[in-house]
Amino acid sequence: MRRTANSWTIGLRDLASGKESTLLRSERYVANALISGDGRRVLYSTGNGDISAVAAAGGAADSLCTRCGTVMGASRDGRRVLYEPLQNEDLAEWDEETRATRKVALRSGEGLLSGARYSADGHWVAFFEIDNRTSATRVWIARADGAVPVARENWIPVTEAGGSDRDPSWSPGGRVLYYLSERDGFRCIWARRLDATAHPVGEAFAVQHLHAARWSMGEMSGYQVGLGAAPGRLVFALREQAGNIWLQEAATK
Length: 253
Prior knowledge:
Blueprint: E1 2-3, E2 8-13, E3 20-26, E4 30-35, E5 41-46, E6 51-55, E7 62-65, E8 69-74, E9 80-85, E10 91-95, E11 100-105, E12 111-118, E13 124-131, E14 137-143, E15 156-157, E16 165-170, E17 176-181, E18 188-194, E19 200-208, E20 215-216, H1 222-225, E21 228-230, E22 233-235, E23 239-240
Antiparallel strand pairs: 1-2, 2-3, 4-5, 5-6, 6-7, 8-9, 9-10, 10-11, 12-13, 13-14, 14-15, 16-17, 17-18, 18-19, 20-23, 21-22
């Protein structure tokens, strides 16, 4: 996504060839563009919570859900969309087959649920919970292919309560869950290995530390970081924090 003075643009880049194409240019605010697992659809949200899709090959945008919320994740074929509602921020899913919304998980008390992503096989969803009283964040996993909403006692904890862990992203094979964490005082990328039932195996481990002053994601929201995993690589955004001091010699007479 790019922003200019008068418009927002959603584009695609072929990582092999470097070729770029523009899918959408709009004067309205658009955000959270993401591509379906099969690479055929791009989903995005507008500022008023409309959710739309556009074919990766190009063409007209298709309105999916009006005033629903912010896109978080998409199924492999892009026909199911996870989103954060505009109000009462439970974990919601929109299904193109039924043209209906359902709640996947319900928030507790003063909290909210966000950052949801499907596993590649569509059986699981990872998300994080924010406690608005303490600002603590915690990563969870829940079933995505059974009865919903999934009872809280059936959620699988990936990180500890009271921490600062958020914005999970699945590995392509579903056996590693990456996420952002500030457990060492900096926002870095950490991960945990998972077994076949999506339960954590072993301790959390650091994937990429970002402690330098120049490159940081500390001032960015999870939406802006856009952490994603592909075979052999992670994709994410960083903010470059640098400045120059210049000395100009005054002219002499």
